[in-house]
Amino acid sequence: MGKRDAQLVTEALFTLVDAREAIENGHSDAALDALEEAQEVLISVKHTPGVSVAAASERLGVSEPTIRSWVRRGALEAVAEARPMQIEPQSLHRVSRALAELRERGRDRDWLQAVVDHLHDREARGSEALREGLAQLGRGRLEPA
Amino acid sequence: MPHEILRTAQVATVLGGMSAREKRSYEAAVDALRGEGCGAGGYRLAAADGDDYPLCCRHLAYAWRMFTAYPRKKQVVIVALDKHERDHNPAADLAEVLPGLATAGRKRSAKPPCCEDAADPPAMNEELSELLSALS
Fold first, then answer.
1. Which terminus of chain B has a lower count of CB atoms within 10 Å, N or C?
2. Would you say the C-alpha torsion A107, B92, B62, B77 has a positive or negative sign?
3. Shortest CA distance from B93: residue in chain A
4. CA quadruple B85, B87, B93, B96: dihedral sign
5. What is the pLDDT of residues A81-125, one digit of tens each?
6. Do the Cβ atoms of A121 and B96 come within 8 Å?
């Protein structure tokens, strides 16, 4: 990090301290203003566009292979052409919030089981074998079992 | 009167590659379907909107699954046999539907039986009929 960027980070840090004091004193508007200012300052710092797989793994509390799996499945977005892989921050934030909800609601075992059932059924409906069988059923190609 | 059990070519092909243990599991399921109809069909699949889908799924040996349809009274069609090979990682599965996480799974709290009454098997619905038209 260059000298200018280091100064910007320090500036943002002080602004965050201001925001914290404003919250402690019940001045929410002032806190929001300070947070926005800190955000603008930090955005101006030169940085990589995404988050490393390792950092995303730590943030979400799942393994790095799981992070890569979620990227392949489209739940997380990778920064285009970034090598090594980087995770797009907005998608990381979205997944982080959803996982927090999942972990909270996952204490309700019936709900969690219902979600798992729903996914398994969805996978079953999309199975290649079932599509092939349905096509044959549609053509009336049946024989005694 | 026993139910008529039909199967697709997909089923016959898959059966050819099954082990003796797997085949026995399949044959036991066919016998049960012959006697009980949809009562031996396992559970109803859920449709995309969470409602019931007009196909049933029965688990066989070694993660094999048997999918059945009930186009006519006293007739069962074994539509397909498929093996559930995917790595069962609930967290990874759940991540698939993160955008809809709040609503997924709310409509059913358990897998419903294929049918409540063998005389009233799952009817082919519009969604499946359209799918069949598109595929055939």
1. N
2. positive
3. A119
4. negative
5. 888 999 998 888 888 877 777 666 655 556 556 666 666 777 777
6. no
